[in-house]
Amino acid sequence: MKTIIPILFTCLLITSCSEDNDDTATQVNITFNFTHNWDGTSVSNANFNSIQYTNANGEQLSITKLRYIISKITFQKSNGEKTLLDGYNLVDVTNGTNLSFTPTATIPSGNYSHVYFTFGFDNDANYNGNYPDLNSASWNVPSMLGGGYHFMQLEGKFIDNTATETGYAYHAIRAVHNSKTPQEFQDTFFEVDLGAVTITNHATFNIEMNIAEWFKNPNTWDLNVLNNMLMPNFNAQVMMYENGQHVFGLKSFTP
């Protein structure tokens, strides 16, 4: 279900990068593992379809679907030189697929001041038709909402304020003012900085998502108000973007 299109961007002039080059550097593979939790309690698809979580607003809920896009993993040295692994990975927790992936491209071993990845697609990549596998995975966004692709689909059920079990669909896309002509957009993809690392061999990044954070920081999410039809809701998409800043973290790293 994933397509990895490795493109390595390095300095065009080798001499301009000499301050960060190490003659002993070797090309190494990088592996990214994705785990999920709810405020520290491990979450996998074995925990789906059962109302057992409580969000910051006090609503009890379940998870029935969770999948999201990670793209443009970037390694940056202290002199600004970047190595970009261009491509994407559709992490599908529901089906237990793509929870781990190793890009086919390698990177030089050495010291990196930052390692980034993008949640979702940036505007250069977010166009319908770019990715046939995502089209077949029903990952498209309708043209009336600006086209492109989802960044995340998080779905489940919650106990509403009438004690009724009600479905919710927390879908993240690029925010759009759909009622305006022409449409107005606000970027809602974001970069996650995993910090500085020293890579000596085939390194492994264990990245964790705290699902509870989507509902609490800085916006306490009221599922009774915001549970469905969130894709055309400009303000809801901006709130998701804001809450997403606190969702991901580097659980561990093996150099």
From TrEMBL:
Top-level taxon in the UniProt lineage: Bacteria
PROSITE patterns: PROKAR_LIPOPROTEIN
InterPro entries linked: MbnP-like_dom
Domain (Copper-binding protein MbnP-like): residue spans on this chain: 29-224
Protein name as it appears in the record: MbnP family protein
Taxonomic placement: Bacteria, Pseudomonadati, Bacteroidota, Flavobacteriia, Flavobacteriales
